[in-house]
Design goal:
Elements (H helix, E strand, L loop, with lengths): L3 E4 L4 E2 L2 H4 L1 H8 L3 E4 L6 H6 L1 H8 L4 E4 L12 H14 E2 L4 H14 L7 E5 L10 H9 L2 E5 L19 H6 L6 H8 L4 E3 L18 E5 L6 H13 L7 H11 L8 H17 E7 L9 H7 L3 E5 L16 E2 L5 H11 L3 H15 L1 H17 L2 E7 L2 E6 L1
Parallel strand pairs: 1-3, 1-4, 4-6, 6-7, 7-8, 9-10, 10-11, 11-12
Antiparallel strand pairs: 2-5, 13-14
Helix pairs in contact: 2-16, 13-15, 15-16
Length: 398
């Protein structure tokens, strides 16, 4: 396996995918060194990235982590201000703003010219439908390979459901939505190391559903289908797991207390979230209008709950089959399905099967092995993409 350099800022996020991305890469590439605020001393950072590469290299692969805005159109003052504001409000770290800005400017200056053959950035949390032609051109100009979903999991705008127009995140960016990212993925499968969200060992639970609270949880922000599910459940008088922590944290944050910007606050929130998944018998989630495979489609079955959902794009290809590993349910049918499950006491085998797919296909270790296979083919010069087919991961090689 090639020697690799991981460059980024070390941050703690609410979303574990971003927090544990360095561990994912280290599991995939044992011979990797780390550079950036939180990984390197101020003295080393002051000398710059190029100096670090000269002193510790050579490297065959460089990874740019999720906290570096490498896919923005331009690293201008507005981008820097918004990035710093997000980091202050929604991540925990001990880095000075001046240190972060200097690191960003150094990275943008060095990366286009650095003598490292394979340059890899993550697009796991990227805003695919809001991408622009300028950003796609950046991928080409800087010869970047992506770690993220391939075209199997991103649909063209014409195929999105009608309800997407009712969602707030659609309204905020409707003037700049396009298919340019989908078109790029479709045309260049060799530029994508196919990977989606992953779950950590601590997120798994083996508590059988008959020992859990007989409630249904609907975690997360109330996007269109989740909101409809909550309305249907309340009308039917079905007990819903409390999201008191969700509402409390949002209220306190709006009062100006940075609860999402402190390690203790992030730990408490994630603990409450995980406890809800691990103690509820049923957990419902749904695709957003864009249909992307959000993290809940992996963490719910990992937690051992019986997942009821409107599935995301490509879910069956990832190994999850309706009626075997989860139950596909639209919001208006949810009360009836829950009443039938409560009457029959069924669901244990489905919950167990879902957890096994999450463990075998979508744990941190499984995802690292998949990335390692892609990297091996990439460094050999034979990589032509990777695809999921009915729960099996395939590398396409020349």
């Amino acid at each position: 396996m090639a020697r690799a350099l991981y460059v980024d800022i070390d941050l703690i996020h609410l979303n574990p995918t971003a927090t544990y991305f360095p561990q994912l890469i280290e599991a995939a590439v044992p011979d990797v060194s780390f550079y950036g605020p939180g990984f390197s001393s101020p003295d080393l950072l002051a000398k710059g990235l190029l100096n670090w590469i000269r002193e510790t290299g050579p490297y065959e692969v460089i990874f740019i982590g999720p906290n570096s805005p490498i896919l923005v159109e331009n690293l201008d003052d507005e981008v820097i201000r918004s990035t710093l504001a997000y980091m202050r409000d929604y991540t925990a770290h001990g880095h000075q703003d001046s240190q972060i800005v200097a690191f960003f400017k150094d990275l943008f200056a060095v990366l286009p010219e650095v003598d490292i053959k394979h340059r890899i950035a993550t697009s796991l949390n990227f805003d695919y439908y809001g991408a622009t032609d300028v950003q796609v051109q950046r991928l080409q100009d800087w010869n970047l390979t992506l770690i993220g979903p391939n075209e199997q999991f991103v649909r063209p705008l014409a195929e999105l459901p009608d309800f997407v127009t009712q969602e707030k995140h659609f309204q905020r960016k409707k003037a700049r939505l396009s298919d340019c990212w989908f078109d790029f993925l479709h045309a260049h499968p060799e530029r994508v190391i196919t990977a989606l969200h992953y779950v950590l060992p601590s997120e798994f639970s083996h508590t059988p559903i008959h020992l859990r609270r007989p409630v249904v949880a609907v975690p997360g922000v109330e996007y269109h289908l989740r909101k409809e599910a909550n309305v249907a459940l309340r009308r039917a008088g079905i007990r819903i797991a409390s999201k008191w922590y969700f509402h409390l944290f949002r209220a306190v944050n709006r009062l100006g207390v940075p609860v999402y910007g402190h390690p203790l606050g992030l730990h408490m929130y994630n603990h409450c979230f995980q406890r809800t998944l691990k103690t509820s018998r049923y957990v419902y989630t749904a695709r957003g209008g864009f249909g992307l495979p959000i993290r809940k489609f992996f963490e719910i079955p990992a937690a051992g709950a019986l997942m009821l959902c409107s599935p995301c794009t490509g879910y069956q290809e990832l190994g999850f089959t309706d009626g075997v590993h989860y139950h596909s349910v639209e919001p208006d049918a949810l009360p009836g399905v829950l009443q039938e499950l409560s009457r029959t006491g069924a669901g244990h085998d489905v919950a167990v099967a879902g957890r096994k797919v999450a463990a075998n296909n979508h744990s941190l270790q499984a995802r690292a092995q998949q990335i390692a296979l892609c990297l091996q083919a990439l460094t050999n010069g034979t990589y032509r993409g990777a695809r999921w087919r009915q729960g099996q991961f395939f590398i396409e090689e020349r």
